[in-house]
Amino acid sequence: MLDIKWIRDNPDALDRALRMRGAEPIARDLIALDDKRRRQVTALQETQEQRNAASKEIGRAMASGDAAGAERLKAEVAKLKSTLQEGEQAEKRLTQALNDALALIPNVPLDDVPVGPDESANVEIRRLGFPRDLSFEPKEHYEIGEALGLMDFEAAAKIAGSRFTVLKGGLARLERALAQFMLDLHTSEHGYTEIVPPLLVRDEVMFGTGQLPKFADDLFRTTDGRWLIPTAEVPLTNLVREQILDAAQLPLRLTALTPCFRSEAGAAGRDTRGMLRQHQFMKVELVSVTSAETSRDEHERMTACAEEVLKRLGLPFRTIVLSTGDMGFSARKTYDIEVWLPGQKAYREISSCSACGDFQARRMNARYRPAGEKGTRFVHTLNGSGVAVGRAMIAVLENYQEEDGGIAIPPALRPYMGGLDRLQKIS
C-alpha cells in the first residue's frame, strides 16, 4: 500500500507511475478524499474541545449555585456527545473509503524499470547456457511423460478435472528429488531458513501481500472463509506482520516448499496441455525481509540464488527485467528467469523475483528499529521462486530427453534419485 503522505507530496509522480502501468491517474481523487477525511478529523477535534470546555463549566456553575446554568450546560454536553458519535462514525467511513482506494493502487516502479505496456517491452539482461543440439525432433514434456507411462492427465481429470496431473514412479521421485535439491541448496549454501508454513490463511494475510482485494478471482477459498495459498510468499512474508524487528535481525531469509493453488481464472485457453499452468503445483519459494538500504542488493542476490538452481541442473536460461506494464501488483521491480524448453522451442518462465519496497510492509504493519534510532521504519520485502518444481521437471524432461524416449538424470539430482542416472519406459 502506498503512503497517502507521499501521494500528497508527489501527485504527479503517482499519476506518471500509474500511466506507465496502464492504469488511470487517481492522485487528485485520493487527495480530495483525504482532504475530506482531514476536515472531519478537525471538526471532531473542535467538537471535543467544545465538549471539554462545557464540562468544565458545569462544575463551575454547580459550585456557584447556578443549577439552571448547570442543567443547560449538561444538555449542551449531551448534544455534543451525540455530535461526536456521529462524527466519529463519519470519520471511520471516510478513513475506510481512503484505505479501500489505496488498497487497489499498484506499487510504483523503480526508475530503472523499462517502460512499456506489456511483455513486449521486457528487456533481456543476460543469458547462460546453450540449447542442446539434438539429432532428433524434440518432444514436449507431456508427450515424454505419457510415453514413459509416468504422467497421467486422464486419471487426474477423473479425480479433479482439468489442469491437474498424476505423476507416477520415476517422475514422482524426480519431482521430490528436485524439491529436496533446491531446499538443500538454499538452506546449506544460500543462507535461507527452511519454514513449513500453513497452507490456509486469513483475509488479512492475503491482503498483506497484495492478493486481496483485487485478485480474489485468482484464488481458492474454503468453506470457513480461509484461502488456499497461491504461493508460499503469502505465509512467509506475513511471519513479520504487526512486528517491530531489531535492525540486527535483518535480513531475514526464508524458504519453503509448499503446494500452491491457483484458479487460473484469466488463463482460459492458455497452456491447456501438460503441466505448465495448473491449479495445484509444488514450488520452492524464497522470501527476504530487509532494510531500504540493502533492498536492491538483496534483489540481485535472490535472483542469483534462483539462477544457481538452473546452473546446477545444466539448464539453459535467460533473465529478463519486466516492463512497467508486465509487473505484478506489489512489485516495484521484477526479474523473470526463463528456461529453455526444446519441445516448445521457446524460453518459458520458471522463476519470478520481485522487490516490493515497503509496499507489503505497510499493508502488514511490519517495521524495524534502526540501530541508534528511537523511531521505526517499514521493512522492505522481496520474494522469488527458487524455483517452481513442476516447471523445473518439465525443463529436465525436455532438455535431457533421448531419442529412444528415455530421460538422462542431471548429475546434481542423482544423489536424490538413489544413484539412478536414467528414466525409461515402464515395461
The profile of the biggest β sheet is: 8 strands, mixed
Shape annotation = elongated
Q: What's the number of extended β-strand segments?
A: 18
Query: What is the domain tally?
Result: 2
Considering DSSP H and I runs of 4 or more, what fraction of the residues is helical?
40-55%
Question: What is the terminal separation in angstroms?
Answer: 56 Å
CATH superfamily of the largest domain: Bira Bifunctional Protein, Domain 2
Based on helices, strands and strand pairing, what is the structural class? alpha+beta
Task: Please describe the topology of this protein.
Elements: H1 4-9, H2 11-20, H3 27-63, H4 67-103, E1 123-128, H5 141-148, E2 151-152, H6 153-160, E3 166-167, H7 169-188, E4 193-194, E5 200-201, H8 203-209, E6 220-221, E7 227-228, H9 233-237, E8 244-246, E9 252-261, E10 280-290, H10 295-313, E11 317-321, E12 333-341, E13 346-355, H11 359-364, E14 367-369, E15 377-378, E16 380-388, H12 389-399, E17 407-408, E18 422-423
Parallel strand pairs: 4-9, 8-14
Antiparallel strand pairs: 1-11, 2-3, 5-7, 6-7, 9-10, 10-16, 11-12, 12-13, 13-16, 14-15, 17-18
Helix pairs in contact: 3-4, 5-12, 7-12
What key attributes describe this structure?
18 strands, 12 helices, 427 residues, elongated, single chain, 2 domains, 8-stranded mixed beta sheet, 3-stranded antiparallel beta sheet
Describe what this molecule looks like in 3D.
With 427 residues, the chain is α+β, with helices and mostly antiparallel strands. The protein folds into 2 domains: 100 residues, Orthogonal Bundle (Helix Hairpins); 305 residues, Bira Bifunctional Protein, Domain 2 (BirA Bifunctional Protein, domain 2, 2-Layer Sandwich). It is built from 12 helices and 18 strands. An 8-stranded mixed sheet has the order 1-11-12-13-16-10-9-4. A 3-stranded antiparallel sheet has the order 5-7-6. Strands 8-14-15 form a 3-stranded mixed sheet, with no helix packed on it. Helix 3 runs antiparallel to helix 4 and helix 5 packs across helix 12. 36% of the residues are buried. The mean pLDDT is 95.
